[in-house]
Design goal:
This protein is α+β, with helices and mostly antiparallel strands. It is 45% helix and 21% strand. Among the domains are: 46 residues, no CATH class; 113 residues, Phosphorylase Kinase, domain 1. The chain has a 7-stranded antiparallel beta sheet, with helices on both faces. Helix 1 packs parallel to helix 3, helix 1 packs antiparallel against helix 4 and helix 2 crosses helix 3. The chain starts with a helix and ends with a helix. About 9% of the residues have low confidence. The protein binds zinc ion. The site of zinc ion (ZN) has 6 residues, from helix 1 and helix 3.
């Protein structure tokens, strides 16, 4: 096996995804080639470093891609590919792996960036989905499927329609009358929506189960002239949205 081929096979080898035949050829090559052994050690170290970056595991597709990029970026492997095996390799042609720490640092930076983006992205997507669903509902003649301000009517309406039980509160006395409820889709999940009114403004409260079960304090986001308030309580995630100003919506959230 030539060094070039060996480098190609290292990534699947480290992922334990190499077929038995290739694996035995590669291990034989590694046993006789110091350069490729050094490369394999560096690659394994890099893999561990990458995996340790951030709290989330790196996506499975990222590591092979990075390894390939690193392998491509390496100085040419020492020695011509068709070297007679008995001839010792000339020491002058042995390349040091000076490039690797720099490339590894760049790769780690790339993964750290990916990690931050992966945290920010679902949140941005959620905001977009909530905003889109709210605007869709506003365009319809009736934003509710069950039109009632009676909590004893609205709460049971959800049973059998969603697999959780949102708490339904009437806030008419506080100036936020309940109009009713509907079902909607956020991402690919079916969610419950409670619809309230404040003067001529509609407030949608999207509710769905929160898998990690942790409570989270309210956060306020203003997007495209709409205010969004999100919080998590008793295993449910809430997103309230309206064109009310942030203070009024925060008051509404506290009452809820
Ligand atoms: Zn080699």
């Amino acid at each position: 096996m030539h060094c070039e081929r060996a480098r190609e096979l290292l990534s699947p080898y480290l992922d334990e995804a190499l077929a038995a035949h290739d694996r035995s050829l590669l291990t034989a090559h590694l046993a006789s080639c110091q350069d490729c052994t050094k490369f394999a050690v560096d690659l394994r170290r890099l893999t561990r470093t990458l995996a340790a970056v951030g709290r989330q595991a790196t996506p499975p597709s990222l590591l092979p891609r990075l390894r390939r990029a690193l392998a491509d970026a390496q100085p040419p492997v020492s020695g011509p590919p068709v070297r007679p095996p008995h001839r010792p390799r000339p020491p002058a042609r042995t390349m040091p792996w000076r490039a690797l720490p720099v490339l590894a640092a760049a790769a780690v930076t790339a993964v750290a960036t990916w990690w931050l983006l992966s945290l920010a992205e679902p949140e941005a997507r959620l905001q977009h989905d909530v905003l889109a669903a709210h605007m869709r509902a506003l365009l319809q003649e009736n934003p509710t499927q069950v039109a009632s301000g009676d909590t004893h009517w609205v709460k049971p309406w959800f049973s059998g329609r969603v697999d959780f039980s949102p708490s339904v509160t009437d806030l008419s006395a506080e100036g936020f009358p309940l109009l009713g409820a509907r079902l909607d889709y956020i991402g690919d999940r079916r969610v419950g929506v409670l619809v309230y009114r404040r003067r001529q403004h509609t407030i949608d409260v999207f509710v769905w189960p929160n898998p990690d079960g942790k409570d989270r304090a309210q956060r306020v986001v203003v997007r495209k002239g709409y205010t969004l308030v999100t919080w998590t309580r008793q295993g449910l995630t809430y997103w309230a949205i309206s064109d009310l100003d942030a203070d009024e919506l925060k008051t509404f959230q506290r009452l809820l």
